[in-house]
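Researcher: Here's a chain I'd like modeled. Treat it as a single chain, no partners, no ligands.
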Amino acid sequence: MPPTYSHSRLSTYENCPRQYRYRYIDKLPRPGPGIEAYLGNCVHKVLEFYFAEVQAGRPAPSREDLLAAYEKTWSATPVGGLRIVRTGFDSEDYHLLGRHCVEIYQAGVAGPDTGEVLGIEKKVDIHLDEGGRYKLVGYIDRFMRGADGVYEIHDYKTSGSLPRPRDIQQDRQLSLYEIGVRGELPATAQVRHVWHYLTFGRRFQRILSRAQLQGFARATVSVIHRVEKETEFAAHPHILCHWCDFNTQCPEGRVYLKNQPQPGLPVAAR
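Model: Modeled as a single isolated chain. Structure tokens:
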């Protein structure tokens, strides 16, 4: 039986086939999360709490409520053992960056989110062909019906840089999520994709046509074909080697890291 893929699994292959082999085929042990992933997870949990309260019909949590939830979530794991790749940044910097993300969202800097919350961390099964040969799974951070009646797929980002316009237009992840939820929606429904770049208090949106969705489906099937035909799983050394879970096992990765300095502070931290 072919595996069930995900956007992140396919992205791993596109970034570096060797990393894909180590993680999904050889199943090498992985270290614990890096602090950036931990920060993102903490902020996601706080916003999950916020919208769970809203969905249940209770008053929206206050700034103080959200910050208390963040501090409790952050302190659940000793951060001293988390990997920090960037030079000039320590665990307290990441802790404060997470607080900033929560505060800036609660303050509504990017505008209010209005409408009906339909799902939080909503699992979607994605079928790219009628025969069910190509399947993916994903989880939507928040699924809503907006005040204007348009369905919305929301995604939270704690990245230290903003996307370029072409990054938004070429984003595959939310396209796949829309393919997954369309089976639950009226045939005439419109779906809006919403990215929240929390560090900057910025929001980006797009609506795709059916033809564009079909294009993303075909392109994703093409990536799956490449994965399933792959035999070499060559390494692609580049800056992401600094964050790779397997950079000590990978000969090419070790050479790359030996000759490349560690990255400095992200844009948002300067």
